[in-house]
Amino acid sequence: MLISAIAFGAPHLRGMPNGLIGAIMAGFLGWLLAKSVIETHGIFWAWFIHFVQDVVIFSAFVMAAANKALQPTTDRDAAPLG
Q: What is the pLDDT of residues 35-45, one digit of tens each?
């Protein structure tokens, strides 16, 4: 399980969130997913947990992009206040 944690966490040094915090978080998830595969003798729960996590992350990116698209780009583009 330690190898899974390292293999899952190391690429996240440049992932999102990046740096040591991202690698530790991803490493913990890698350990948790490996543990679920061992304990359940299957990959369904590991796959499901990863799928739900990816849906949440993708949704956050979409909402952030939509929010940025709705913001005025300059003061000149902003609607007048009065």
A: 999 999 999 99
